[in-house]
Target: WD repeat-containing protein 70
Amino acid sequence: MERSGPSEVTGSDASGPDPELAVTMGFTGFGKKARTFDLEAMFEQTRRTAVERSRKTLEAREKEEEMNREKELRRQSEDIEPTPSGSNMARDCSKSLSRDTSSSESEDTSDSSSDELIGPPLPPKMVGEPVNLMEEDILGPLPPPLYEEGEDDDDDEGEDEGEEENPVQKIPDSHEITLKHGTKTVSALGLDPSGARLVTGGYDYDVKFWDFAGMDASFKAFRSLQPCECHQIKSLQYSNTGDMILVVSGSSQAKVIDRDGFEVMECIKGDQYIVDMANTKGHTAMLHTGSWHPKIKGEFMTCSNDATVRIWEVENPRKQKSVFKPRTMQGKKVIPTTCTYSRDGNLIAAACQNGSIQIWDRNLTVHPKFHYKQAHDPGTDTSCVAFSYDGNVLASRGGDDTLKLWDVRQFNKPLFSALGLPTMFPMTDCCFSPDDKLIVTGTSVQRGCGSGKLVFFERRTFQRVYEIDITDASVVRCLWHPKLNQIMVGTGNGLAKVYYDPNKSQRGAKLCVVKTQRKAKQAETLTQDYIITPHALPMFREPRQRSTRKQLEKDRLDPLKSHKPEPPVAGPGRGGRVGTHGGTLSSYIVKNIALDKTDDSNPREAILRHAKAAEDNPYWVSPAYSKTQPKTMFAQVESDDEEAKNEPEWKKRKI
Model:
């Protein structure tokens, strides 16, 4: 039965629609016969498609059940004592069972499909005849027998389990390269997310950049700078995008530089005279460490000796975003020594000088979400806290020579604790392996008293499973990059070592070890000892006069060059020129006062020298007091002999 659409047009004109009418109506399809649909054919096609899909689903389900049965039989045969006859019987049983099930299933499907399916007949294997798996039409070489395939699977599973049980085999320590940073401690390491560049910082105030793809076998840094002047570098970390580096030094202001070392921003310094540190715009004391947010671009965190943890944004260096203030159980201030974000960025963990570990929700700055007050010994600086990649476990490296593991979901006691891990640096850190099965930390040694080690602990049992002797100095920093699968180590004698495995590691150090060291060109070696000044070159040299006589004649005619210098003026001055001591009375008096007129004569004799003349010819004072002035009488000066005669007897006896 065919049904026509409602827009079907019938007419006496068999030749087709009238073109003029189509133009008049405004569209070309006017007047054409509508499309017809065979509904029964459509329903039949839909039914066939549904039956075919259900048949495929049923076949897949039956195959899965058959595989499960075979695995169960194999597991039972392994549990029983393996004998040749028993294994053959189990194998025969499994074959016969699979053959019976396949034949019964094929019969059932053929019966059901013969009643329902419409179309060409099914392949022979579906018509009730038991078909062997080896007789199917398969492209390529034939698969191995069923029991051999099962044995291979068992072997593969056993190998996988062996690898899982022994994570030490995944440690990439077969090869190493050494990067010479300087002579002082390498206190900071940073590797960008792609693993292309390494940045190191130390106690010598230097920050050096290493490019694995651009280095050759000489292993030289392509850039060195001092971003914080005379402050030791304490922490370096690349952002999650790899375009910025957070530099934390001994100053109170953290800096952010780009990949090439140019400054992007510098945090503002706070007011140290304000009591409440939440009201200041920045840190007021020395920084300890810093960390980038793992998800939000441009956000980072720092902790300082002013007892605060502050969150910053690169776009707003004039003020921090939020402030966390660690407190003791009694509400007193306590200094945080290290801080970090969780893997999802929702939690902030900080370890304090009183031995406590405090964890906040990033959006709630008032009270910590978790607070364990005696995580490590009070008075020791906890140097590192690190979250695992799954975010459930926290590792803390204490200044009390311990490494502890904590469950964030039940933060009431440590899961494990390892002792005997000496540390002498406030930035000795720890990290997790990329598969979260190992925990790595370094140990410190006194100079000349052994070698520093890189120690590996298994996370599940916290057993000390592996050690690597690094060098005859302390191991301060360690970093295990997840993409490169390489371990970077910073030591106390100015070295940065990279451990890798050619088979297990990717890129990184493998790129530069294969490049031969570039030889210096001979031209460069020859010209190295010569110093060429610009004015010594002919193009910069001034032209020299061929004849000096003509130049002297020209200079004689020049009134300025041939002018005789005038001698100094003697006297009060003339011609507008001031004399040596000026022409005024005050300058003359000053000049004479400065002269040395010391008189060593007796002032009494100098006055009495004019006494007779004043008495004979009084002029100034004597006439005014002539009637009232008494007669002057001067004492006579006796000689030393007369004075000795007139001395009393008691003075003579005393002498």
Observations:
- The radius of gyration is 51 Å.
